[in-house]
Structure formats: C-alpha cells, structure tokens
Amino acid sequence: MTIFYEERFEFDISEVVEYISEDSRAKGKKFAREIRQAILKIPAFPYKHRQSIYFKDDTIRDLIYKGYVIAYMIDEESESITILGMIKYKEKW
Predict the structure, then answer these.
(1) Does domain 2-88 have CATH number 3.30.2310.20?
(2) What is the pTM of this model?
(3) A Pfam family for this UniProt protein (predicted)?
C-alpha cells in the first residue's frame, strides 16, 4: 500500500514539532521521526488501529502515539492509505 500525506497532517506535525523544539530541538526531531516510523508500519495491518472516534467510517482509523491521534483513511480499491491529520487526544477535529 502507498501512503499519502494530506497538507493538514504536514501542517499539524510541523506545529507540534516546533512546539517541542522550543524545549529541545533533538526531542522535536526524535518525535517527528518516531511518528513517521509508526505511520510506515500501517500498511502491514491497516485495520489494526481503532475505528476513528471523529468519523463514522470504518475505513478511517486512529493511530494513537504519545497522546496524539493520527487519523488515516484506508482505500482498498487504490491500495493506499492517506494520513489525514494529527491532533492532541480529546480535542475536537
């Protein structure tokens, strides 16, 4: 499966990394690297993560990582996964 990233996700992760980097640039880079590594594992078991609590669609799932929710959509027809965005857990979408 191919992974695509929405602009929203790129904006969201850059905001979080920038915030973390205010304390430690190394921690910000490490956080971004770890999230991207977790995302790269999705294609092996795309339905492993819970159905999104923000969308009523079984093909939209929530990967939870260190208090953040990364929403992604599975498109079996095109064999792709689209990373939609990232928010702090419990925030509204």
Answers:
(1) yes
(2) 0.88
(3) ParE_toxin
